[in-house]
Amino acid sequence: MLVVMKSHATPEQIQAVCDYIEQLGFRPHPLPGAQRTAIGITGNQGEVDRGNLDELSGVAEVIRISKAYKLASRDVKEEDTIVRFPGTDASIGGRNLAIVAGPCSIENREQAFAIAEQVAASGAQFFRGGAYKPRTSPYAFQGLGVEGLKIMAEIRDKFGLRIITEALDNESLEHVAEWADVIQIGARNMQNFSLLKRAGKLRKPVLLKRGLSATLEEFLMSAEYIMSEGNYEVILCERGVRTFADHTRNTLDLSIIPAVQRLSHLPILVDPSHGTGRRDSVLPMARAAIAVGADGVLVEVHHQPEKALSDGPQSIYPDQFARMMDEIDQIATVVGRKLPRGIQIEAPAV
Ligand code: PEP
Ligand code: MN
Predict the structure, then answer these.
(1) How far apart are the C-alpha atoms of 130 and 125, rounded to whole Å?
(2) Ligand 1 within 6 A of 337 CB?
(3) What is the mean pLDDT of residues 98-116?
(4) Contact, 145 vs 167, CB < 8 A?
(5) pLDDT confidence tier of residue 166, bands split at 50, 70 and 90
(6) How far apart are CA 244 and CA 54, in angstroms?
(7) FRET partner for 335 with CA separation of 20 to 30 A, picked from 24, 61, 142, 277?
(8) Which three-class secondary structure state does DSSP give residue 91?
(9) 34, 71 Cβ separation under 8 angstroms
């Protein structure tokens, strides 16, 4: 159920509607839009008993949402969600493209700094790197943990880059939430519902990667888990799914981009690194991702991929990343987008 407020509804009227929804035993989710505020209602297992909602002052209409996902749906919020990073000009969603680049894993300080310096020089605004790694083998490098997070925080201080890194479980979530700007929930955890709910209780953006065999509806339902707890800053990421094709590590499903944009207001990025698993495919698929309308790309970059402790074969070299930025820049203008180069940090108020 959705309560659409009149365009001139006052904050007091919005609050009164939220209070009334709580009295009915449900949870209100006020979602301000450009024209008007909509208030999503969750917490019901069946039909909401709408009581006198229609008659409260400031209410324009009360609508039933038939989709399984509510808060993630465009029915609830027409305009695109833009996730902003206070104190900077960086954003994810909206006209500006977001480029996330960095190694698969943070291996040591020198490695992370060498890569960060180069991706920052090419104009990336976001730095990625795993401190907690979901590896297929328990004997493979598992990440540096908190030490890796601290290295990334130093990188933010030095280069201004905003930090995106994965939380694997409830324990790492606490650490990641403390140090990072965006919490990544990986493909293997897309349906780890307790982790999604915990991330939903935080007030920090979450980058949710599509599961290896997730349908579009399952993907959006996982976003809904996070949003249902009150965290509305969810960024989706297509990273390829399992198919019979064996020429790539996964099959990058770019056709999900327009489908997501039709159904949801949430931003969506594309990860051509995990999506293809091959260095020579990353650039072409990154170009295609921007052409199809993605809000940005997430790519693995390594200055010495042959020595990388994880995902070397799919990591591009810094000079390839520089070329990718130039190519994306050109495609951006064709599709009505803009590629910001570098991140502007506001001086702290004195
Ligand atoms: C990653 O981004 O490092 C990662 C492990 O991705 P995914 O969850 O998509 O495999
Ligand atoms: Mn990786």
Answers:
(1) 17
(2) no
(3) 98
(4) no
(5) very high
(6) 52
(7) 277
(8) strand
(9) no
The mean pLDDT of 273-298, rounded to a whole number, is 98
Q: Is the dihedral of CA 306, 312, 318, 320 positive or negative?
A: positive
pTM, entire model: 0.97
**Which residue's CA is the nearest one to ligand 1's atom 6?**
186
Which residues, by Cβ under 5 Å, contact ligand 2, an ion?
104, 311
| Secondary structure, 3-state, 168-229 | CCHHHHHHHHHHCCEEEECHHHCCCHHHHHHHHHCCCCEEEECCCCCCHHHHHHHHHHHHHC
Q: Verify whether ligand 1 is closer than 6 Å to residue 270 (CB atom).
A: no
What separation in Å is there between the alpha carbon of 277 and the centre of ligand 1?
11
Note the maximum CA span of the chain. Answer: 66
Question: Which of 311, 350, 263, 258 is closest to 115 using CA atoms?
Answer: 311
106 pLDDT above the threshold of 80: yes
Is 151 a residue whose pLDDT tops 80? yes
Cβ of 186 closer than 6 Å to ligand 1, yes or no, is: yes
Q: Is the CB of 209 under 6 A from ligand 1?
A: yes
